[in-house]
Amino acid sequence: MATSVQRASQLTMADLKGRVDPDWCPGCGDFGVLAAIQKALVELQILNHNVVAISGIGCSSNLPGFINTYGMHTLHGRALAVATGLKLANHELTVLVTGGDGDGFGIGGNHFVHTMRRNVDLLYVVMDNQIYGLTTGQTSPTSRVGMKTKSMPFGNIEAPVNPISLALAAGATFVARGFSGDQKHLTELLKQGIEHKGFSFLDVFSPCVTYNHDNTYQWYRPRVKKLEDDSAYDASDWTMAMEKSLLWGDEIPIGKFFERTDVPSLHAAEPVLNEGPLVRLDPRVPADAARSFIEELM
Amino acid sequence: MKQTFAVAIGGAAGQGVATPGDIFAKIFSRRGLSLNAYNAYQSIIRGGHTLLTIRTGPEPVTNMGDRIDLLIPLNQDTMDRHLKLLKSGAACIFNADTIKPGEAAEGVQLCPLPVSGLADITRNKVAQNTLAMGAGLNMMGIGFAALEEALHEQFKKKGEAVVAENVGVARAGYDYAAAHFTAFPNPLSKTEKRYAVLSGNIAMAMGGAAAGVKFYCAYPMSPSTGVLHWMAAHARKAGIMVRQVEDEIGVINMAIGAAHAGVRSMCATSGGGFALMSEGLGMSAMIETPVVVIDCQRAGPSTGVPTKTEQGDLWQMLGAAFGDYPRVIAAPLDIADCFKLIPEMFNIVDRFQCPGLVLCDLLLSEGRLGVEESALDFNPVIDRGEIILPLDDHGDNGNGTGAAMGMNGGYKRYKFTESGISPRAVPGVPGHVHTVATDEHMEDGVLISDEFTNPVKRRAMMEKRMRKVAGIEAAVPPPTLWGPRDADVTLIGWGSTKGVIEEACEMLNDEGITANQLQIRWLVPLHGEAILELLKGARHTIIVENNYSGQFARYLRSETSFVPDGNIRKYDGEPFMPHHIVEAVKEQLAGKTHLSVPMHEIMV
Description:
Chain A is α/β, with parallel strands linked by helices.
């Protein structure tokens, strides 16, 4: 994804350690996601001043405070919009957007769909725990039907969103699913997502050990099956990806569902950026252009 | 009394009111005449009624005025609505084949054009418009060459045959008027001045380009859409990234994202869209990333009257987003000021790292004004404030690699300073890595909202941010009083009413009532003490504004305890005309009322 990342051999896990330690509940899936992101950046050797981690609001959205890159901890649901503006103003930066299922699929649903169709060159990692955690346990857009929460004490009667199918339908050019309980696999997906030139969506099962007693590590482990293990699976085949995305139950696929590389990302499609990132452009309008702007009014 | 001439063209949307309007405007401005155009229209694409008034003259023309000198009704409806407004000396040119005139006042010249006899109407659907233009210009005493030139420019893309046909039709109208109608007694004068004719929306967009805006995004919303249109059309030449976003929540957040990367970033909307942006404004203030938001007010509440003007968003803007934070609010005074204000606003918000809000309205946004070229300065002062940009090549400066890059050399994004301004490094700068947050945070950006809540630190950070307010106050000039110091009446307005109040003052002075004007441009900071000082000796004060509740009057009272002797308000969607204010002042000075709400006589 990043066009001119600086490679150096010195970046270590220690460089990426945040100023404070995460304050997530012990056992939270988000620890695994943070560690995998740090590993991916080290393995790709992208200098931390060229990385911006952008989040919304929620437990998982606290992540930018726990990693030593540039970061923006923005508003609930708005991280993708902020990230789009930032990427377009300086497309040399590697942009990681992190957040939860409520942040991304609930309050941020509109931006989610539109950022995908725009193919903004960034990696969007959703720590999907099927619950609202920071507000102490309410139904989320990915909570299963029947799940009992404080906001739906008699059980959820609304169908959950399927993030993978939604992403495929909205035109995401890289769509994957990971599991916080499988670090190695998750790190690999993160690296692929960062390197993909376009919008990369990575939905990660990141169990909430405090409020979601349905979708636990123990629940996931026997169910998740890696797409990479299926030699017949072709991640360039959108229809096949859509079919796989519908699987849920005893078998839940994880891994790369889909990737296409033939669509230019938003910044690559915009001729205004031919001269380089906006942030490096001369703020002054060229004199002949200014003259022509006035002339056309006379 | 000013020497002006106003032509009004009316018809259904889609009947071609705009083209003759553009051509008249071009011809007037090329004669070195000042002009102001106001289009009263409806939220309809085809049909309905629209009335474009272009007022011109050798001296600055700042508003639509009180009088129509020439009415060109393109349909019966326009004739029926507006003929009765014409007063002695005025004329009405109309298509005699399709429109019947009604009862006209004495001294009004009715000018029927036998359209089918003068042009082939099967070939030229807008022949009546072109004939009327020719006839009208003849009666104004303007040579045909000016119209020929304007028609050539208008139609050259369609080929020489189309140009020739239109010139022929215009000529027929011109000659017919010479033979059958009486010319206006004073031919339109000519000066050596050169004017650019532009709307407030174009002016704000161009002002943005001049200010160095590199990122503009918007969701279409009347009456702000013209800013988007100019930006989109000129983006490549000006080197500006322009995006249309899914909603205004996305707009403000995207704009802030771009600003955070280090570019000047702007967006425009109207009241409804501004409402959606309000949470984002709080983010701009909290993370201290400057952004400029334009609100082109229209008649509210809710969807309201999308094509009509109002000054009804002041309190929305004063209260936008929860919590206390530094903000800057200014209302441009006229269309030239729409241009000038944007670079000024950017310099202030860049220096003070907070949101800047421009409170425009439909009257300026969609009105048009002849502006002298010198008012469109593409080399204004650009002061980016204390910003650290990634201008060096990455990794070259020694502290960008290894363990050192994790340590940030002690850089604190929200460092406590006397001014409250902390140097702002943007992503990509080596050695300054930090995270910004909408949660309350410490100097280094670490949150003090959850694990580390601390009332002492929270107070210190609130005070750091709010210290910027004093600096902003010092950076913004206080208002001044225009006109004679000792006057019978002082008219107080804000923003777009500048021109019409100014003209009302002139008319009052002509009638022997001395009047002066206090027009507020910077709403926050307000400079309340300076205002009180200016108003201390005022004999009779009246606040003039385009809303129901006296939003500015209430704001001024809340800031200064000042209560005026009277108010003039209008909330029918149409702008003030000078006589509205003059008559209201007279009735108030006569002690008849303290609140005047003038009735708009033009049914549009």
